[in-house]
Design brief:
Blueprint: H1 2-14, H2 20-33, H3 37-53
Length: 71
Amino acid sequence: MKMKEECQQACEKRYAGLSFEEREKRMEADILASPILGDFYRRVFLAGDVQDKAKPQVAETGAEYRAKEQP
């Protein structure tokens, strides 16, 4: 519990005076710059962003695209 409070106080001092958006960007940049946390953050949190942005694309050229009925 004490370590959590110390971390929160350190973050408040480091990012004091920044708007929420600026603070969020700065914190993410600091995490990504860390050799330990950066790799973990990329694998866990940014992997979902990449999957969300990649949407499957299907080319449909016409009626022949649809499955034909078997007699």
